[in-house]
From TrEMBL:
The lineage of its organism: Bacteria, Bacillati, Bacillota, Bacilli, Bacillales. It comes from Paenibacillus arenosi. This is XkdX family protein. It holds the Pfam family Phage_XkdX.
Length: 46
């Protein structure tokens, strides 16, 4: 998760791009959880 937080903080990626890295039923190979997404972006993952 540290990489994704750093990339988001440095504006290398935005919240829309980070959503693609979230582990869900449709994306089982995602690298972060919905809770981590919220922790990084302060936006709830719905």
């Amino acid at each position: 998760m540290e990489f994704w937080k750093y990339a988001f903080d440095m504006n290398w990626i935005n919240a829309d791009i980070l959503r693609k890295a979230v582990r869900t039923g449709n994306n089982p190979s995602g690298e972060i959880t919905p809770e981590q997404y919220h922790e990084i972006t302060s936006i709830s993952y719905v």
